[in-house]
Specification:
- The chain has ten helices and no strands.
- By secondary structure, it is mainly α.
- Among the domains are: 1-84, Up-down Bundle (Four Helix Bundle (Hemerythrin (Met), subunit A)); 124-165.
- The longest helix has 27 residues, at 88-114.
- The chain is elongated.
- The model has no long low-confidence stretch (mean pLDDT 80).
C-alpha cells in the first residue's frame, strides 16, 4: 500500500466517523464542528483525486463561510434540542426504511460508474490546461442548460426564503420609513389652549365648609 492509498483510507474513515457524529451528537455545536471536520476530510479526498479547485471551493465556501455562520447562529440562539428528540424512536422505523431506499437508489446509480473495463486515457491537451479550466469548459458548454436550471431553482429558493421571513407577525413592532419621512411638525407637536385659572379641588372646598 502506497502513501496515497493510505491517506485515502485515513481521510475516508475520518469522513464517515464525522458524518455519523453529525447525526448522533447531542449538542448542536458539536454536530456543527463534526460537520466542519467532514467537509475538511472530503476536501482532502478531493485533493488526493487531483481536484484542487473543488477542494479549495469546499474549504472556502462551506467551511470558511457557511459553517462558520451556522456555528455562530447556533451558539447565539442556544437552541434547546431536547424537544426535537421527542418521538425519535417512534419515527425511527419509517426513517430507516426511507434511508435504506435512498441508499439502494444511490448504489444503483453509482455502481454503473465503477463498472469500467479500463479507464480511458486522458487527453494530454486537457491535462495541460488544468482541471479548473477543463471544469469551466465542461460546465458552460456541455452542461449549460442543467447549470441554468440549477440557478433558477436556487433563485426560487432564495425568493421563497425571503418571502417566508417577510411574513407580518402580530407580535412584531416595526415602523414604516415612508411615514416617518412624510411626518410634519403639526403631526408630532400639538399646542393645547388651557385656561389660566382652574377651580379648586373638591377636597379643599369640603374642608373649608367644615371649618365654617
Amino acid at each position: 500500500m502506497d502513501t496515497t492509498t493510505a491517506l485515502f483510507y485515513t481521510f475516508s474513515i475520518v469522513l464517515l466517523f464525522a458524518a455519523f457524529r453529525v447525526i448522533t451528537a447531542r449538542s448542536t455545536v458539536h454536530a456543527a464542528l463534526f460537520l466542519v471536520l467532514a467537509f475538511f476530510s472530503a476536501a482532502c479526498v478531493w485533493m488526493l483525486l487531483e481536484a484542487e479547485f473543488l477542494a479549495i471551493a469546499l474549504v472556502l465556501v462551506y467551511i470558511g463561510a457557511v459553517m462558520v455562520l451556522f456555528l455562530f447562529v447556533v451558539m447565539m440562539l442556544d437552541i434547546n434540542t431536547d424537544k426535537f428528540r421527542e418521538g425519535f424512536w417512534k419515527h425511527f422505523p419509517l426513517a430507516g426504511v426511507v434511508g435504506a431506499v435512498i441508499a439502494l437508489e444511490m448504489a444503483l446509480v453509482l455502481m454503473g460508474g465503477f463498472d469500467l473495463p479500463q479507464a480511458p486515457e486522458p487527453d494530454p491537451a486537457l491535462v495541460a490546461m488544468g482541471n479548473t479550466k477543463v471544469l469551466g469548459i465542461e460546465i458552460y458548454t456541455h452542461y449549460l442548460y442543467p447549470l441554468q436550471i440549477a440557478a433558477v431553482v436556487l433563485l426560487v429558493a432564495i425568493v421563497a426564503a425571503i418571502a417566508l421571513t417577510l411574513r407580518r407577525r402580530k407580535d412584531s413592532r416595526y415602523l414604516d420609513p415612508a411615514e416617518q419621512v412624510r411626518a410634519r411638525k403639526a403631526d408630532r407637536v400639538r399646542l393645547v389652549q388651557m385656561p389660566p385659572v382652574v377651580d379648586r379641588p373638591a377636597v379643599a372646598k369640603s374642608a373649608e365648609e367644615g371649618k365654617a
